[in-house]
Amino acid sequence: MPKECNCTPDDIMLLPCSGGSNCGQITNQAAINLDIQGIGRVFCLAGLGAKLSGSIDKAKVVKKIVAIDGCQIACAKNIVENAGLKVTDWVCVTDEGITKSHTFNLKQTDINKISQKVKTSLVK
Question: What pLDDT is attached to residue 7?
Fold first, then answer.
């Protein structure tokens, strides 16, 4: 029987890269879907990048920080780490077989795939 995450949505910080590609936008849509489903809460990655104290303070008290990146450049993961925080879960869209492009006709199947990958990462 698989274990379940004992976290509440407020314990899980979802940080999509929201980059300028289909894959970056898939991270954003997946994070929004997860937030709506009550799996976690979307937070502002830019606030961490700017090292705003309020953003960093919130990140210090959550149980899980989930960086969702569109590609292996891993902007979201690097921003979190450069803010002195630890990523607990990392999902990369291109690692899931989705090809990066500069088209924004997002497929719901791709968004669902990444949403599910994040959910699976939380079960440990």
Answer: 76
Q: What is the pLDDT of residue 4?
A: 56
Helix, coil or strand: residue 123:
coil
- Counting other chains too, the contacts that 55-58 makes at CB distance below 8 Å and 24 or more residues apart are 55/83, 56/83, 56/84, 56/85, 58/13
Low-confidence ranges of the chain (pLDDT < 70): 1-6, 124
Angstrom distance (rounded) from CA 61 to CA 87: 13
Cβ-based neighbours of 5, under 8 Å, separated by 6 or more? 12, 64, 122, 123, 124
Q: If you average pLDDT over every residue of the chain, what do you get?
A: 94
**pLDDT value, residue 9:** 76
CB atoms within 10 A of CB 52: 14
**Pairwise CA distance, residues 49 & 52, whole Å:** 8
